[in-house]
Amino acid sequence: QYLVPNPAHLASCLRSINGGSSTIVTFINCLSVEVKVNWIDFDGKLKFYKALAPNSQYDQQTYVGHPWVVYTDTAFAVFHPLSGDNLNRAIIDNPTRPGRNNGTTLIPIREMAALPCVWSLNGGASTYVTFFNNRFEAVRVYWIDMEGKKKLYETLQPGGTYQQQTYVNHPWVITTVTEPERPIYIFHPTAAPNTTATIF
């Protein structure tokens, strides 16, 4: 039976973004069971592409900044194409702990909530974002680095604004200031100049 993932979790942290170069990904199923290959669209929704038989492979055209999710009945993997050189290989092997080893990140389904699914990628165009805090409370603005770690850049008071130079494929997380700190939303910059991210 095909396992349907938690849509709220995926929508909160996995979605395609524009601006990445075209590339080819080779999905290689080294398992003894069929896997389902899905693209995550711009709204964070799963789009089924292929049922990949055991010990088989196929090439998929995609873009840097477009995540893919592979599922079995008991495990899943997330793959982020990292370059436009057509050398991306998503090797689907035995379940492992989360990592960033070019897509070999099958994780037991019970650990889905712990998925470190947001991090910055190289290759995006430079841009500027203005963060505007339209809430009645202060918020924190974090950049998510190449290892998926939060880096605090600014604490915005109610009504405050802050301009930040950044890149396409570099996500930003807005959180509450009060403890326990709670994420409000994740912002993915686009190539449009001088974007405003309004925090409601």
UniProtKB/TrEMBL annotation:
<dbReference type="InterPro" id="IPR024053">
    <property type="entry name" value="VHL_beta_dom"/>
</dbReference>
<dbReference type="InterPro" id="IPR037140">
    <property type="entry name" value="VHL_beta_dom_sf"/>
</dbReference>
<dbReference type="Pfam" id="PF01847">
    <property type="entry name" value="VHL"/>
</dbReference>
<protein>
    <submittedName>
        <fullName>von Hippel-Lindau disease tumor suppressor, beta/alpha domain-containing protein</fullName>
    </submittedName>
</protein>
<dbReference type="InterPro" id="IPR036208">
    <property type="entry name" value="VHL_sf"/>
</dbReference>
<feature type="domain" description="von Hippel-Lindau disease tumour suppressor beta">
    <location>
        <begin position="119"/>
        <end position="174"/>
    </location>
</feature>
<feature type="domain" description="von Hippel-Lindau disease tumour suppressor beta">
    <location>
        <begin position="14"/>
        <end position="70"/>
    </location>
</feature>
